[in-house]
Give the backbone structure.
Amino acid sequence: MRVLVVTAVPVERDAVTRAFADGPEVSVRQVPGAEIHRAGPFDVLAGGAGPAAAAASAAFALAADRYDLVISAGIGGGFTGVAPVGSLVVAGRIGAADLGAETPAGFVPVTDLGFGRVWHFPPRSLVRAVTAATGATTGDIVTVSTVTGSAERAAALLAAHPGAVAEAMEGFGVAEAADRLGLPVLEIRAVSNAVGPRDRDAWRIGDALAALTDAFGKLIPVLEGWTTHHDRDHS
């Protein structure tokens, strides 16, 4: 199985490839706008922050090679009481939290305007297998263009998406690129901070990156036991 892993920044990319430090030497090749680091079955790139950069980088990489699965990976914010700092989350659904329009009655998702989509659905059997192997929490991971920085915004986001366990900035963009080619997508996040007021002193980025490395070290047996012919029912 060939897997494309898209992170936002090099430190996340390196956390993924570090899982294979004792394996074959990591090789590097260029695609437009990014380097792809190959480690085991994973081609890993740092595609940039935000859904647009992530979608563009993933699309370039997918056009340059053949893959069986696409993973959006990195660190992110966890919702208090659901995904504590230092834990791992796997998306049961990948959502666009703020894709839509503001109206006098409040926010309206783009689907209610009659076009687009706001959710992508990773294969359920793969989500179950990865969750079991890594001890992750499963739930909705919502993609935002602006990182939450207040308790009020965190509460509003959770009220709009009560199944959310974490927020990040790239998952929906990666999923959009994968969907164009009919490829399954997965999102894995290690929680570096709580969603809410920005308190840099409370962030545990190092612990989150270590958790990401540990998770990817456990994925190869999972992927070897899973194929794209399994659960393709995205309901």
